[in-house]
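Hi D.,

Good news: the full-assembly prediction came through. Inputs first.
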Amino acid sequence: MNLVELKSPSKEIRQDHWGKILCYAATGVLLLLLLTMMYFVFSKGIRTFTVDGVKVWKFLTTSQWEPTSTTPKVGALALISTSFLTTILAAVIAAPIAIIIAIYVVVIDTKIGTKLIQPIVELLLGIPSVVYGFVGLTMLVPLIRRSFGGTGFGILAGMLILALMILPTITSLAIESLRGVDRSYWNFAYTLGGTTWQVITHVILKIAAPNLIIAVIYGIARAFGEALAVQMVIGNTIQMPINLLTPTATLTSKLTTDIGNTVAGTLANDALWSLALILLLMSLAFNLIAKRFAKRRVKS
Amino acid sequence: MNRYLIDRVTRHLIQLLVGLVVALILIFLGYLIWQGRHQVTWTFLTTSSEVGLGIRDQLFNSLYLLVLTLLLSFPIALGSAVALTIYAKQNIFTRLAQMAIEVLSSLPSIIVGLFGFLFLVLKVGLGFSVLSGAIALTFFNLPILTQSMILALKNVPTSRLEAGISLGVSQWHVLLKVIIPEAIPGIISGIVLSAGRVFGEAAALIYTAGQSAPQLDYHNWNIFSANSFLNPLRPAETLAVHIWKVNTENIGIDADKISRGAIVILVVVVLLFNFLARRLSNYLQQKNGGR
Amino acid sequence: MKKQLVIGSLFLLGLTLLAGCGQQKTTSSTENTTKSTKVIAVGSTALQPLVEEAAKKFQTDHPKTSINVQGGGSGTGLSQVAQGAVTIGNSDIFAEASQGIDAKKIVDHQVAVVGMAPVVNPDTKVKNVSLAQLKQIFTGKITNWRELGGKDEKIVVVNRAAGSGTRATFEASVLKGAQAVKSQEQDSNGTVQQIVKSTPGAISYLAFSYFKSGIQPLAVDGVQPTAKNVATNRWQIWSYEHMYTQKKITSTTQKFIKYIQSSRFQDTIVKKLGYISIHDMEVVKDAHNQVSEK
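Then the structure:
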């Protein structure tokens, strides 16, 4: 082996080099796509404020939505509150169930869990939103009407449908999170005489907490963006959500109902894009809060 | 003794709850299948909606679109996941990238659809086509796919990488030979997760892949020919879009029947896909040394 | 070793496909310019089934043409045809009545007439209302079916999406400038049909072709919602379906629109799908909802 050979990079180094380039290129493509999308929504959503002259503060604090009247008014407060409330409630229902299913699949009965339970839960993903919507409309809404009165349309119906829809997303990611906990920690806890339940609560859930939070964030994100199903059961009426049974509307349900009927470049259309922008910003806020919360939990 | 009791009780409670939820889901799915049981016939599966009530082309379009979407998004997602978990140091950029991915996953699909319509269909000039649809779905698929791959890769202990490096093997080699094979179950479940959404997605496709299913010639293998089933530049209505369309605007009296039947097919296809994906995952794992 | 190959080739395949997209883009855009027989119609979902049917028939007679019919909503159709991005913009609404569209830049082709009627859930036991009562219901002045001689039940108003053609027609003929009560809004005919069918006390309005068992269409001032009454304007809630184009159009587009407007097509398919033939109309309506004798 002469000196020249030693000085030039080995085959391993070259392999590594190219591998790295390939992976970073993929990340580059991914970020480029995401940034294009963000730029697109941002540039369209900002027009309401820059071109049409609507005050941001007014947009966020009023609930009138009459963009085509002679004195145009657009206010998204009711939509924002409903989106927020429906999503949180859906996550509050779905997250614990999803995590319990994940515990079952990873800890209690791996065989039945992975062969049967997980596939069944994941089947829910392939059902189109519109089917959830129609089943909600023909079964859930009448059920709520008979049990609680009112028209049956409202946040209660919306959050139940959403909870069902985001269950597979959270479950799947939660299962991955729990699997990620190193076996040696479990074994250690068992040898110390811990029961399964103690191992679950004191070891597995604690270690997996940050990833579980991410799983829930994805569920929340999915719920935020869901439109077709929610639109059918929530009542699609722009008013503040006073209780769980009054009809109301979410950011996405309003967006989906109206966007095809508005003309590009008008206030009515711009304001809908602003709703999409708000959705992104809210989702960002959610993300930051959840991450901070996760950090604190891990420290304590 | 007490803690053993707690252990037993909680274990049973968990089993009960999981059983309950699964039963509920099965009732829901069973209801959908029961409703459409009379619709699913051989003719329903093998005729075109252009001439009758069949859904042959929609079924094929769904599958074709899934394949194209996965071809586009799988390499990007896997590459990014590797870069973000293994190569890059955990710093502000990787965290920003991760956050961008998470935030983007909340975009309503109709926004992705309109973006696809204005940008891909009109500006780039792809028209209403399978390709426009696949790219739009890639946008909307990437966050969840990348995230599940990140989780799957993180689950492989870092000791594997260190062992590899200390043996003088390149990181890349360890990655391909050890880490990715070990992460395969997680990666596959990520694919199942995103494939489910592709099958079920309507709003993003209405504006990109379109709502019409021109009659296809399944013997025409020339991908540039307009009626070839492989042509990526033809409009392609998927099953989910078809269900959406007949439910919302169709005038025909058979709308209910078509949509009920189509739902059954969709459920069965998703089930089959999940099953096959898991079989593949097991097979690859076994080849990897029976882990 | 095989795994390495498989994963490596997957990477490559994906990347070449990505690169391939770039190439396909250019080829497709050149194709568009050379193929002048390609027609893209986008817009109104209410008109979509008719145009689809027409395209199917037209293409069997003219096998070299390719007509691509998609939805997206009237607003989308008008915006895109005005920008010249698509060949035909389908719309339920006059371009003049739509905010933000320069109606002088595009040409209107009326291809069908659609009658709409109020529909209610059958358990309300109401089958006829006066125009004034209808207005009072939708402005929130009447809130119980008992006031109209029906069952003692709260009225649940289901309105149509703001800016939609259906809503514009209904408001022009019934509300006449009054503000509608704040209520549920739905965009698609199918959803409205389903909601009215399953919600006691519900009222909304639908195109004639969406009447189905389980919902009760209302007569207004004793006039039944039928095609015949629309033709004479005795039934006043109706509108045109429009296909807008740029001023300069290809001969294929022209032929296609002529085909849809022909009596052969109007008398058969248009009627079969529940629309009303433009040739049957004895009156005309302009963009400001003024009706005059033909």
